[in-house]
Amino acid sequence: MDTRTGLPVVGMVGGGQLARMTHQAAIALGQSLRVLATDPDDGAAIVAADVHLGQPTDLEALRRFAKGCDVVTFDHEHVPGDHIRALAAAGETVYPSADALLYAQDKLAMRRRLAELGIAVPRWRAVSTADELDEFAAGDYPIILKTVRGGYDGRGVFVIEAPEEAAGQLATGEPVLLEEKLTLRRELAVQLARSPFGQVAVYPVVETVQADGVCVEVLAPAPGLDEQTAVEIQQLAIRIATELDVVGLLAVELFETDRGILVNELAMRPHNSGHWSIEGARTSQFEQHLRAVLDYPLGACELAAPAVVMANVLAAETTAQPLDERLHHLFAAVPDVKVHLYGKRTRPGRKIGHVTALGTELAEVRDRAARAATLLREGTTH
Amino acid sequence: MDTRTGLPVVGMVGGGQLARMTHQAAIALGQSLRVLATDPDDGAAIVAADVHLGQPTDLEALRRFAKGCDVVTFDHEHVPGDHIRALAAAGETVYPSADALLYAQDKLAMRRRLAELGIAVPRWRAVSTADELDEFAAGDYPIILKTVRGGYDGRGVFVIEAPEEAAGQLATGEPVLLEEKLTLRRELAVQLARSPFGQVAVYPVVETVQADGVCVEVLAPAPGLDEQTAVEIQQLAIRIATELDVVGLLAVELFETDRGILVNELAMRPHNSGHWSIEGARTSQFEQHLRAVLDYPLGACELAAPAVVMANVLAAETTAQPLDERLHHLFAAVPDVKVHLYGKRTRPGRKIGHVTALGTELAEVRDRAARAATLLREGTTH
Lengths: 382, 382
Hints:
The structure is a homodimer of 382-residue chains. The first copy, chain A, has 12 helices and 17 strands. The first copy, chain A, is globular. In chain A, 31% of the residues lie in helices and 26% in strands. At the A-B interface, helix 1, helix 11 and strand 16 of A face helix 1, helix 11 and strand 16 of B. Chains A, B: Keywords: ATP-binding, Ligase, Nucleotide-binding, Purine biosynthesis.
């Protein structure tokens, strides 16, 4: 409890853009997010008032950080489960719990658990040898190889065209799993928040558009998705959240295939597939996560406009103009998109921000968001 | 320029809720607002990363604060004009300028200037003696007495029912002016932003509802206002901003009377009459102020919903529940209003936050906002 305000203190481990945007949401709720950053120049650290420095793998740093927090939560999956258990054993409130977060940290545990629950997933197998890989592929390449831990934004995911391409990864001894390479109609995602009380609030199902394994665009709601499938997907997410006892946000990434809807990945934190909600839903995912982990009643998830498009801004290799000038061009050209910059140093390919457009006609809204993202990424060529 | 991000640094003098909400907007723009607070527990100081302590009347503190800022701006009117001139003479960029801000600081200067411009205002007169007061009133009480400087939120404004009621105020020697007590149909307000380049972006005209001289509710757009009058009011505001060379936000508070629209007050900063814009307009007043003082192209001002209502939350004398519990009740009862808490210690009558509701039917939206504000102010009586 913050004695200055009589309101709770939420601590978030990790100082990236998710913590940065959660701090914005915390301000409206009368709070000030406590951030555990690894670098004083982290995106959240340079905007928050209550910043601690420390590694997410350092239990003593986590213990010091948690002191005085009403709840500790995460902007990434890098805190070891045993550390979370140690905090909980010491009486700290941590959401999601170690037992729940495991399924967002460990793809093998997640696949096994979802299989137990009878939830449709791609065909998969844990492997450690070339023989096992050959057996899984049965001559039918390409297949997908994923590291069990540490993957995100396309990292830790490899398309294997021939057995020898997996040799290096298998030689590391790091646990990996294989998945069939599916022909996707498209990728979808659904996000919900669940409170310790058990209240659940689900956002509309969205379409996520990927390029080179990285999400570049999110369309809310997923265009052309029939109402019944949308409801089934929402129910699936509720079932997963309830079975895994998730508290806070859960993002379920999905494949839409000829075999139906398959679960790809889980995340238990604010997620890129939900950035559209800042302006596009009545309650943003960041506010919702705070409400969930604090056991406040959850906010309304309704869309604020018929069509909402979020486009990520990945830094270009080179640009003719500095970021501030590109922002001028964007604002001049597209006065009605919303810009979110993450306060990061620019490095090619790095997500430096996103833009969100709202409107009534998806094609127009999508074009507007893409135009804004391009201007912010590349500037103009006049 | 912030060398970590390549983006500008805006410094805001004053650490209240306006700076607090401006910091939220700055985060999205990739910035971190620099705040000059008088107390480390000020609402903005407890959420911002870049906080300086100092009085707005201390020129040396202002000079230190301005170093490294790309632009200095204000969350109140308390910085003396000569200090602003001294900063500008030293090469600092300050918006609004001292010459413009004067008309928001000094009601007499404002009335004189608007009169010169032929803009309709209430009948008024500067007075310093009881004889002058008698002469102005001509036996027709009540009249309104206003201090020339320092008034806001109903402070510095007195309804004078009989000459002797003004004696105390006149005896202070502080400059005052008198105004006729008008029969108002209602109060309106219009807000715009103007950039150094001269671009202007105007928000829809809103109705402001007062109780005991304090704004309690803002209805956007002003219900039942005919299109032509709305445009005339917007044009009036543009004319004032251009004539006074305002940079940043300008709020024009208006009386709707049988004699037409009269200008009551001016403010040159984010203003309570524009809080609805955080969710209710495509570009919030806080983002717009930053864009204006930085000479970025301005954002779209369109309404995000047909009816938007902002209700202030003034702390109650006593409450059965602490703030955090009242927030629980509010969230449970009204899941689709947006809450903004200012991080202030509760003191009866103090504005501790506001709520905003959006929808299609004004009566329903207004009821929802009022219900939320009451729950946040008083809690439940179960």
